Amino acid sequence: MGPLTPLAAALSVVATASATASSFNLQSNWGNLSPYAPSPGFTLPSGNPIGCELTQTHILHRHAQRYPTSYLLDALSMEAFAEKLKNFTTAHPNTTLATGPLSFLNHWEYVMGTEELLPTGAATEATSGAWFWSKYGRTLYKAPAGMADWSDDLNVFPNGTQRKKPMFRTTSQARILESARWWLSGFFSNVGANNSYPQYDLVIIPEGDGYNNTLSGYCPAATYPG
Ligand SMILES: *[C@@H]1O[C@H](CO)[C@@H](O)[C@H](O)[C@H]1NC(C)=O
Ligand SMILES: *[C@@H]1O[C@H](CO)[C@@H](O)[C@H](O)[C@H]1NC(C)=O
Ligand SMILES: *[C@@H]1O[C@H](CO)[C@@H](O)[C@H](O)[C@H]1NC(C)=O
Ligand SMILES: *[C@@H]1O[C@H](CO)[C@@H](O)[C@H](O)[C@H]1NC(C)=O
Ligand SMILES: *[C@@H]1O[C@H](CO)[C@@H](O)[C@H](O)[C@H]1NC(C)=O
């Protein structure tokens, strides 16, 4: 591995610090901004008891990372606090707002909105759906070795007759509906990841003979003797 760039160096410093710090996990204490984490398991053994078969699985899943709600004790109180600081600074332009451990408040800006599912929440849901497919869906639908993704062909009764589509339930509230859709995209392997196609141009450089593809490890023009 080559020399660390400043960003990589900073990241590795952070990683070292958190690995050696106490068991306090900052990310799991962010409330509504915390990523989903599976429960520690209630000390129950995991896996199927020998000789048993999975015939159904149940999951009740909360929406993932979101902005605070516009409830008085949630976003409203934080917005009011930010406004209070701003009012103070405006009224006392030449006074230092805070010192010592609170001096970060001198540059602090409140940037959160309300209610919406965040991009990190969408990613959390997709990951969770993919994880659930891998851990339970494959077993339930008896996906054969080598079949990575969900297939309609698996959705049959033991006699081979096609079953009805699997059904899921969610609510109409935007962040919850979006969470459900992202989760299902993970479960059903939206491998094309192509819903955002119209938003960007992607240059797809072919690999293989006849192309000097510098993104490929075996680009002929990038192989050196010795
Ligand atoms: C900030 O100042 C505005 C304008 O004077 C006022 O309407 C508002 O209530 C103040 N906000 C807080 C949280 O004190
Ligand atoms: C703040 O400081 C500036 C520059 O030092 C000065 O011109 C201004 O009058 C001061 N304002 C107040 C409210 O004291
Ligand atoms: C296959 O099994 C399902 C579920 O037991 C049943 O509803 C269906 O009628 C069966 N189909 C045939 C062709 O036997
Ligand atoms: C999305 O990607 C998948 C996998 O590459 C492809 O099979 C499918 O045709 C694509 N769908 C659209 C609408 O482009
Ligand atoms: C790939 O690079 C090599 C070495 O520079 C060159 O001889 C060859 O013509 C290039 N091939 C293509 C398809 O551009």
TrEMBL record:
Stored Gene3D superfamilies: Phosphoglycerate mutase-like (3.40.50.1240)
Single GO term (MF): acid phosphatase activity
CDD domains: HP_HAP_like
Keywords associated with the record: Hydrolase, Signal
Full protein name: Phosphoglycerate mutase-like protein
InterPro entries on file: His_Pase_clade-2 (IPR000560), His_PPase_superfam (IPR029033)
PANTHER family with a match to the protein in the record: MULTIPLE INOSITOL POLYPHOSPHATE PHOSPHATASE-RELATED, PUTATIVE (AFU_ORTHOLOGUE AFUA_7G01240)-RELATED
Signal peptide: 1-21
UniProt keyword GTP-binding, yes or no: no
